[in-house]
Amino acid sequence: MPLDHVGHIVLVLSGKGGVGKSSVTTQLALTLSLQGHTVGVLDIDLTGPSMPRFFGLEDSKVRQAPGGWMPVAVHARQALRAHCTHVTPGPHAVGALSCMSLGFILASRRDAVIWRGPKKTAMVRQFLTDVLWPALDYLLIDTPPGTSDEHIALLETLLQNTSPVPRPGLPHLAGAVVVTTPQAVAVSDVKKELNFCRKTAIRVLGVVENMAGFVCPNCSECTNVFSKGGGQIMASDFHVPFLGSVPIDPAFVQLVEEGVRPRYPAGTVVAGRDVGSEQLEDGGESNEGLLVDKYRDCSLYPLFDGFVTRLVADIKKDDGP
């Protein structure tokens, strides 16, 4: 099956809607690509497919090929530009990134998906069996909130066609990244997702606490709008790794919505790193380049660079010599 070309599969889960799973998936994918890995993103949030918008591909459509669908290319493998100053230099090439989503199949992005469980189940299984992925180092699967029909179909198909440990010729179901926000109501729902992982023997690779603070676009302060620390406490209670906290960054929103390269006032510090610019530029240069290139100037990239480095090291511990 097409998954045979996939090295490691990572699920992005949450028991709560609106916590930013798709945002986290996008940034994990871009960061893996910037570290030189070839990446695919599969969006199985059928009623709210948002990955095409995050990648700026809303007008793209999938192509039929003998045996299945061709995923949409976000960018090809390319040389890494060396303009970013606040991140430790990585590999000399950006890995290719491709995406598959129901949003590429619908006639209009405004169309509502009103499907019963069996049709959702069939669609998820078709995504897992009919998408002709190129050879991938990592496949990230962005899921809807909760533990619904899509999750059951996803796991049934994956557990039949993958291996929990790396084996030649079989894709490795590495585990899941679980996303929460700091509030008690979100943490309460996300605990159910961790219990879901425990009952289905899905390894939790780490918890990300999203929206833990707000980076002011006009000054250097980061304010904890939704408090902070709930995700870390939850991870500790369930004895799973805590990857870290991610603040809300309006510059990342502007990057996704308008394609504007992030710029920050001098003195802006996120996670102990100075990501500010001495002079804010508002010219055409801000809009030039690919999404992956612009993302390197985002204040959130150093955070996700650390998350991904830990995830990759953790996953590769099982690869053996």
Automatic annotation (TrEMBL):
InterPro entries attached to this UniProt entry: Mrp-like_CS, Mrp/NBP35_ATP-bd, NUBP2/Cfd1_eukaryotes, P-loop_NTPase, YlxH/NBP35
GO CC annotation: cytosol
UniProt keyword annotation of Zinc-finger present: no
Keywords: 4Fe-4S, ATP-binding, Cytoplasm, Iron, Iron-sulfur, Metal-binding, Nucleotide-binding
Coiled coil regions, renumbered to chain: none
Gene Ontology process terms (BP): iron-sulfur cluster assembly
Domain of life according to the entry: Eukaryota
SUPFAM superfamilies in the cross-refs: P-loop containing nucleoside triphosphate hydrolases (SSF52540)
Similarity comment: family membership: Belongs to the Mrp/NBP35 ATP-binding proteins family. NUBP2/CFD1 subfamily.
Reported function: Component of the cytosolic iron-sulfur (Fe/S) protein assembly (CIA) machinery. Required for maturation of extramitochondrial Fe-S proteins. The NBP35-CFD1 heterotetramer forms a Fe-S scaffold complex, mediating the de novo assembly of an Fe-S cluster and its transfer to target apoproteins.
Protein name in the entry: Cytosolic Fe-S cluster assembling factor cfd1
Native species: Ampelomyces quisqualis
UniProt lineage: Eukaryota, Fungi, Dikarya, Ascomycota, Pezizomycotina
